[in-house]
Design brief:
By secondary structure, this protein is α/β, with parallel strands linked by helices. The mean pLDDT is 96. The protein has a single domain, classed as Phosphoenolpyruvate-binding domains (TIM Barrel). It is built from eleven helices and eight strands.
Length: 262
């Protein structure tokens, strides 16, 4: 029988202990959140990827805290069981600890999220510690960090060399020590993702990082086939772009020919 109990942040570590894979997807509105929730999704990520999927930006950098609050509220209203995690947008957490706590607190208190996600290593674990001490569950994110796209020079696979891989492993352990309850690994070599997953007690969630992570995440618009050119690691489970175009064309034709309404 399906498990209808709400998913909590600490419960993801239990899934890792039991060898249960974690299914996570990026959602942006109440309707999709309800559909994914009813299907049994474990985690709904209100991703700042909404900058591209919803708002039409080229990157996630222009996404504001107000944008994230708006969509987090919607997803939270649609979710009943899944854990709702909200991305902290650009410049909302790589600032003073107090400002980061206020921003994350708003995503929980006003947005209805149960946790937040932050990108990067280096100084970020110190911020994670502040957030966790304030009672805010935090998910980390290493590898390809889209908010740093200009610094990285584009959307490329990360940590391919020995030095970069060592830094990523060090950052992963630092985030775990800081109190992160899970870690997204994006676009890193499969063997590196396997090693990080084996070394950490907290679960890893992969996206373009191979099959050895404790779970997987996709952007819902990629999974549903709404984009013409999805990233190579994304699997399309539906072709809604073509289906929506077909339905819209049929509606237009019916209206212009007087078949709708009858």
């Amino acid at each position: 029988m399906p498990d209808h109990r709400p998913v909590r942040a600490p419960g993801l570590a239990l899934k890792k202990e039991r060898g249960e894979k974690i299914a996570m997807i990026a959602a942006y509105d109440a309707t999709m959140a309800r559909l994914f929730d009813d299907a049994g999704m474990d985690v709904l990520l209100v991703g700042d990827s909404l900058g591209m999927t919803i708002l039409g930006y080229d990157t996630t950098v222009p996404v504001t805290l107000a944008d994230m609050l708006h969509h987090t509220k919607a997803v939270s209203r649609g979710a009943r069981r899944a854990l709702v995690v909200a991305d902290m947008p650009f410049l909302s957490f790589r600032v003073t600890g107090a400002r980061a706590v206020r921003a994350a607190g708003r995503l929980l208190q006003e947005g209805g999220a149960a946790a937040v996600k932050v990108e990067g290593g280096g100084p970020v674990p110190a911020t994670v510690t502040r957030l966790v001490e304030a009672g805010i569950p935090v998910m980390g994110h290493l590898g390809l960090t889209p908010q740093s796209v200009h610094q990285l020079g584009g959307y490329h696979r990360q940590a391919g060399g020995a030095d970069a891989a060592a830094r990523l492993i060090e950052d992963a352990h630092a985030l775990e020590r800081a109190g992160a309850f899970a870690l997204v690994l994006e676009c890193i070599p499969t063997e590196l993702a396997r090693r990080v997953t084996a070394e950490l007690l907290i679960p890893t969630i992969g996206i373009g990082a191979g099959p050895h992570c404790d779970g997987q995440v996709l952007v819902s618009y990629d999974m549903l086939g709404l984009f013409e050119n999805p990233p190579p690691f994304a699997k399309q489970y539906a072709g809604l772009r073509q289906e929506i175009s077909r339905a819209a064309a049929a509606y237009i034709d019916d209206v212009k020919c007087g078949r709708f309404p009858q």
